[in-house]
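Exercise 7b. Backbone tokens:
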């Protein structure tokens, strides 16, 4: 489960910290997001099911989560080792399957 979006960015980052605490040690995880800075253009992404500003707020929180200097703290606190895709161990899905999931 990924961190829940909140109305407060600091609370969201606290959620990322709590989420990292729930992950098992010595396992490999992919953290796939669709981050974007909060820009006026993103305010235009809405429809009858998605209120105006929701996409912008959530994508901005993902941007904050991947660009936060807190990762330096979390890296030590949770013994995280960042990997490139090419360094990752093969999982139950092939690289081709992962590309379909990521790219669509």
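Sequence design result:
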């Amino acid at each position: 489960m990924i961190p829940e979006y909140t109305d407060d960015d600091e609370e969201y980052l606290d959620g990322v910290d709590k989420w990292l605490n729930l992950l098992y040690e010595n396992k490999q995880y992919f953290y796939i997001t669709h981050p974007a800075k909060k820009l006026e253009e993103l305010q235009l992404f809405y429809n009858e099911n998605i209120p105006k500003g929701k996409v912008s707020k959530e994508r901005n929180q993902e941007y904050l989560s991947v660009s936060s200097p807190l990762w330096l703290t979390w890296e030590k606190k949770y013994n995280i080792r960042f990997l490139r895709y090419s360094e990752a161990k093969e999982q139950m899905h092939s690289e081709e399957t992962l590309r379909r999931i990521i790219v669509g």
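Instructor comment: Residues 28 and 90 are 10 Å apart (CA to CA). DSSP finds four helices and no strands in the chain.
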